[in-house]
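Q: Structure tokens for this one, please.
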Amino acid sequence: MLESKLIKKPYIATYTMVRIEVSREINAPIEKVWKIVSDMDNEPKYWHGTKSVKNLNVSGNAITREVIIAFKNSKCMETVVLNPMKSIEVKITEGPMKGSKIITLNDASGKTTVDVVWDIKLSGMMSMFTGMVKGHIEQGTKDALERISMDAEKS
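A: Here is the predicted structure, written as tokens:
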């Protein structure tokens, strides 16, 4: 009788690159919009995909932090660089997604144009749902910019 052996293959994480671009013009000066978007501790108020933020280290304009995201309450590690009145560069270094989120502000004659660009790789289980996750992040970004806009446009 022949013996059957089950050979287990090692799990290899697969990554799928996702790029998301969302822009919005906000009827408020850049200083007012910057005050809102650069308040990194208040991020969950605007970005509902972010459940909580814990700053681990602050050094000048750079912040290393632990973030709990809505997807299965997963933990991500991020490094954030604040470029005052210009941009916020978020580098996602650990978690179910890795990559970057860049928020850029531009003065548009008293109004502010906010551009958000995500370049992320989804790993493991998330990679099977790339289309759904991309749509969710894109809609979440539009919703966050709407909430930011509403607060910035208040008199």
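A few notes: The chain has a mean pLDDT of 90. Strands lie at 15-26, 50-59, 62-69, 75-83, 87-94, 97-108, 111-123.
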